[in-house]
Specification:
38% of the residues are buried. This protein is an alpha+beta fold and 244 residues long. Helix 1 runs antiparallel to helix 2 (30-39) and helix 8 runs parallel beside helix 10 (219-239). Strand 2 and strand 3 form a beta hairpin. The protein has a five-stranded antiparallel beta sheet. It is 46% helix and 18% strand. It folds into two domains: 3-137, no CATH class; 148-239, SH3 type barrels (Roll), CATH 2.30.30.
Length: 244
């Protein structure tokens, strides 16, 4: 495999592992397959990891959606980045194709009435990445209650490192909350797990998923993630009628 292909597959494995360990997303114990690939990224382990990821029903349909709109493959690095943290590829996905993807979630357990309502009332400026799925679709799995705390944990968050130990990171991050029916974000200092052994310095920017530090990112990437997150929050509030 090429270095870029390995990095792309590692990235999607990193983000997918925390919720899978909790039993929330994907086939049970897929995280062990991902861990094996990360430790030994050969062709065989890569193929097995990709096979598992295709069964992540709140992930792979979006990778296909973004890839098709940009004439790329689902496991292309730019496609994976678009889904998890956001980039310009999202702007090329048509409204009707996002609607089709939402309707397809009926096949994976989302009630038909909810899928049809979400598809028909989809705000025009909604961008089809992980943030959109969490805030607008919520959860397909019945194992996770769609309460604000779970939505907050499932969002890919950004945080700035304050200090770290070999196992934990203290960082200034964000938290989703609801006020007067509106979704909002606030700063919050957090203690995070460091399962992938990130080597960090004070003031580094990282991404966070289910209270796990996922990757070290640039300031530019952090700004993109922040921008796409706030944009989708605004669109969700429009959908619920809380903003004009």
């Amino acid at each position: 495999m090429l270095r870029k292909e390995i990095d792309a597959l590692k990235k999607v494995c990193f983000y997918s592992m925390p919720p899978n360990r909790l039993g929330y997303c994907g086939p049970a114990e897929s995280w062990k397959v991902f861990q094996k690939f990360i430790s030994n990224p050969n062709e065989e382990n890569a193929a097995t990891a990709q096979k598992q990821l295709k069964h992540f029903t709140a992930l792979f349909p979006y990778l296909e959606l973004i890839a098709d709109a940009n004439s790329l493959k689902p496991f292309d690095l730019d496609v994976i980045e678009a889904y998890w943290t956001g980039n310009s590829l999202l702007e090329n996905v048509s409204y009707s194709e996002i609607q089709k993807t939402i309707l397809s979630f009926q096949n994976f357990g989302l009630p038909k009435s909810i899928a049809e309502k979400k598809a028909s009332q989809l705000p025009k400026q909604m961008l089809p990445n992980h943030c959109m799925h969490v805030l607008y679709i919520n959860f397909i799995s019945q194992k996770v209650k769609p309460i604000v705390q779970n939505l907050s944990n499932c969002l890919v968050q950004w945080a700035k490192v304050i200090d770290e130990t070999p196992k934990e990171i203290r960082a200034k991050g964000i938290e989703l909350f609801q006020e007067a029916g509106q979704l909002k974000l606030k700063e919050k200092e957090k203690t995070l797990q460091n399962p992938f052994g990130l080597k960090l310095k004070t003031n580094n920017f990282i991404t966070v998923h289910w209270d796990n530090a996922i990757e070290l990112v640039s300031k530019e990437c952090q700004k993109k993630l922040e921008s796409y997150t706030f944009k989708n929050i605004e669109m969700v509030d429009l959908f619920t009628g809380n903003r004009k």
